[in-house]
Design brief:
This protein has a single domain, classed as Glutaredoxin (3-Layer(aba) Sandwich). It has helices at about 15-25, 45-50, 55-60, 65-70, 70-75, 80-90, 115-125, and strands at about 5-10, 30-35, 100, 105-110. The protein has 7 helices and 4 strands; from the N terminus they run E-H-E-H-H-H-H-H-E-E-H. Helix 1 (about 15-25) links the parallel strand 1 (about 5-10) and strand 2. By secondary structure, it is an alpha+beta fold. It is globular, with a radius of gyration of 14 Å.
Length: about 120
């Protein structure tokens, strides 16, 4: 995979986990861009790239409020990469946050200090 020039954090600004991730990156001097997918949206190409590293079952937050608000038929329709992409484009709040694109082009979801430290060290190495 071709390396990208920077780190992008995808999420929404009022999400507590996104706030923690952004603060960690800033405190550790990790240059990054923030992509507010509520305001800026998210495209199929980005989601498809993310699904190379993160299975749709992990990318789609099936424990969150947005998922629970879907009717059972809509939930059942999310069964593979293509249907997960369609659901996430229609309702970006279904995406587990934060979605990270690291400098090496790999993607991850969620926040933990250990995982961020490892990914940040890998970009420097």
């Amino acid at each position: 995979m071709k390396p990208v020039s920077h780190i992008t954090l995808y999420g929404i600004p009022n999400c507590d986990t996104v706030k923690k991730a952004r603060a960690w990156l800033t405190e550790h001097g990790v240059d990054h861009a923030f992509h507010d997918f509520k305001k800026q949206g998210i495209d199929a190409a980005t989601l498809s790239a993310a699904l190379r590293d993160v299975p749709w079952q992990k990318l789609i937050n099936r424990q969150g409020t947005s998922w629970r608000k879907l009717d059972p038929a809509a939930q059942a329709a999310v069964a593979d990469d293509a249907s997960a992409i369609a659901a996430a484009i229609a309702n970006a709040s279904l995406i587990k946050r934060p979605l990270m694109r690291w400098a090496d082009g790999r993607y991850s979801v969620g926040f933990s200090e250990a995982a961020f430290a490892q990914a940040s060290a890998a970009r420097a190495g």
